[in-house]
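User: Let's play a game. I give you a shape written as tokens, and you guess the letters that built it. Ready? Here's round one.
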């Protein structure tokens, strides 16, 4: 019996050691892929006139809003829809209060700084400013560029 367990263990070890290592993640190559995908998305959606900010977030202020502007320490109350570039909706929220200094994706922390109370903003977030090379749940794959339409209900 011990002999069979030893042989079985050795066979298992042999197969486990044959597993190939994953290629190292190349952030600059992924950034280039994201940029190409975003440009294709913008070309296919002529109604979107987004600006790329210094941090790499694309944004379009759809409705300016007339209230206070967000700051890095603001709490922003929003309604939002999140989609992948292919249009697949992965999330939606109403009346969500988000503190920009908390643990949220960088794309929101940076992109919502372009928003004011009462406004609507479109954010196109490269993967590095979203979930990076890790999937999030079942609906957001690794290296996904995310598109958000966000209504700003209040800023405090």
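Assistant: Ready! My guess for every position:
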């Amino acid at each position: 019996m011990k002999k069979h367990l030893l042989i079985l263990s050795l066979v298992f070890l042999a197969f486990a050691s044959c597993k190939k290592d994953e290629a190292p993640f190349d952030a600059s190559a992924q950034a280039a892929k994201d940029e190409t995908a975003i440009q294709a998305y913008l070309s296919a959606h002529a109604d979107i006139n987004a600006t790329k900010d210094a941090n790499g977030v694309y944004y379009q202020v759809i409705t300016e809003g007339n209230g206070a502007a967000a700051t890095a320490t603001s709490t922003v109350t929003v309604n939002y829809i999140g989609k992948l570039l292919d249009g697949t909706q992965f999330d939606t929220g109403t009346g969500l209060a988000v503190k920009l200094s908390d643990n949220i994706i960088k794309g929101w922390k940076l992109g919502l700084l372009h928003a004011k109370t009462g406004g609507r903003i479109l954010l196109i977030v490269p993967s590095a400013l979203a979930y990076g090379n890790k999937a999030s749940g079942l609906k957001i794959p690794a290296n996904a560029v995310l598109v958000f339409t966000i209504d700003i209900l209040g800023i405090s």
